[in-house]
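Look over this today:
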Amino acid sequence: MTAATEPVTTGAEGAGPPAPRGRLRESPWATLVAIAFGVMMVALDGTIVAVANPAIGASLGASLAELQWVTHGYLLGLAVFLITAGKIGDRFGHRNTYLVGVVGFVLSSVAIALSSGVAMLIAFRVLQGVFGALLLPSAMGLLRSGFPPSKLGRAFGVFGSLIGAATAGGPILGGILVDAFGWEAVFYINVPVGAAALALGLWLLAANRATDPGSRMDVPGIVLISVAIFALVWALVEAPAAGWGHPVTLGSLAAAVLFGGAFLLWERRPEQPLLPLALFANPSVSIGTLLTVAMALSLMGSLFFITFYLQGIQGMSPARTGLQLISMTALMAVTSPIAGRVLDRVGARPPTTVGLLLASAGMFMLSRLETDTGVVFMSAAFVLLGTGLSLIMTGATAAIIGNAPVRLAGVASAVQQAAMQLGGSLGTAVLGAVMSATIVSTLPGHFAGAGLAEPSADDLVDMQSVVAQGGAVLPEGASPEVAAAVTQASNLAFMDGLHLAFTIAAAVMLAAAALSLLMRSGRMTDGPAVHI
C-alpha cells in the first residue's frame, strides 16, 4: 500500500461514466434535498431526547445512571459502528446503505417508544445508534460523489446548516412534544420525518452504485477497531462517575490502547484494509481529523456545563436557556452555507483558521463569566462561537472528505463523524474531571470565607456532583442566612471550575488554529487527493 496523488474527481471511480444530468434525480442538489430529512432526523435525536429524560425516568422508574445510558447507549452504537458503516457504504453503495439506515432508524425509534422497561429502551437506543451510523457516512458519501469539487464546500455548508437547525430546534420541539403527548412523542416524531426521508430518497437519489465494489470486508480490522472504540467510549462514559483511577476505567483505557494498537498494526497487512492508513498521508485529511476532535472536545465539553450555569447559577428556565443558546446554534445554521461558499473560493485553510480564532475568542469570553453576567455579554460570546464553529465544521469536513478519493468517501465520512463523536465524549469527560477537581479543591475555602464550617473529605465527594450542576447541598433545617451562604459558596466553586475548564477549551481552540496553518492551501479543484 503506497501513497501517491491524483486529481480530485467526481462520480464513482470504476463505475463507468456519470449518468446524464438532465433529469432531476441526477442533479447534485436533488441529492442534497433527498438526504436533508434523514440527516436532520439523526441530528434532532441528539438533542431532543435530553428534554424527555425526566419524563422517561418518572414513567419507567429509571435511576439517574440508567437515564444517562439513554444518551450513552445511542452514542456507543453510533461511535462503535461508524467506520464499519462507512466501509459498507463504499462497498455496497451509499444510496442503499442510506435507505437501510433511514428505515432502521425509524423502526428502532418506534421500538423505543413502545418499550416497557428502561433496559429494553436502552437496548433499542444502541440499535438506533447503529442505524444512525449507517445513515450519516452514506449521506456524506452521496454528497462527495455527487458534487463537483468546485461546489463541495457549498454542499458541506448546507449540510452543516441542516445539522445546526435540527440541533437548535431539538430542545424546543422536545419540550412541546413531551408537554402535549408524553415522552414517547420525541421518538414517534421520527416516523413522519423518516417517511419523508425515505420517499425523497427513493424519488431523487440516482441508482445505487458502489464506489469501491471490488473490495472485501476486513473482518479482523472490524473486530479490532470496534472493540477499541467500545472500550474507549465506555471509559469516557464511566470515568466521571467511577473516577479515572477506578479499575473499570483503567481497564477500559488499557483495552482501548491494546486493541487500537493491534488495529494499526493489522491495517498494514491486508491488501484491502478497512481503513487505509495512506488516507492520512494527505496533511489536510490528518490535520482535519485532529481539528475536528479538538473542536468537538472544546464545544461539547463546554456546552455540557453552560446549561448548568444558565439554569443553576443564572436561574433561567429550560425554555429561556434554549433561547439564550439560539444565538449560537441558529447562527451556525445561517452562516454554514456562507462558509461553504467562502471555502469554494479560497480553500479549506483560511476559513478553518479564522473559525478557530473566532471560536477561541468566544470561548475565552465565556471563561470570564460571573454569577451575574448580563445577557448582552453572553450573547456576544455565543455569536463569536457560533460563527467560528460554522467555519470550522465546514472547513474541517471539506478537508477530510474532499481530499479523500471518491471510492473511499464513506470511510472518510465515517472518520469525520467518529472524530466528532469521540472528541465530544473526550471533552465531556476531561473538562468534567477538571470541573470536579477544581470544585473539590476550592469549595472548602469558599465555605471558610463565608464563615461556614469546612466540609469533610467524605462530604466533598457527595457535594461536588451537585455543585458541578450549579446546585448546592443545604444542611437540613438550615436558616435562610445559612442557606444563602452555602449557595453562594457553592456557586463560587462552580464558577472556579467553569473558568478553568473554559480557559482550557479556549487554549485547545487556539492551538488548533496554529495547527490548521499546516493544512494544504488552495481550492479543492487545484490540488491532489490521496490515491490508495
About this structure: Residues 355 and 391 are 5 Å apart (CA to CA). The mean pLDDT is 82.
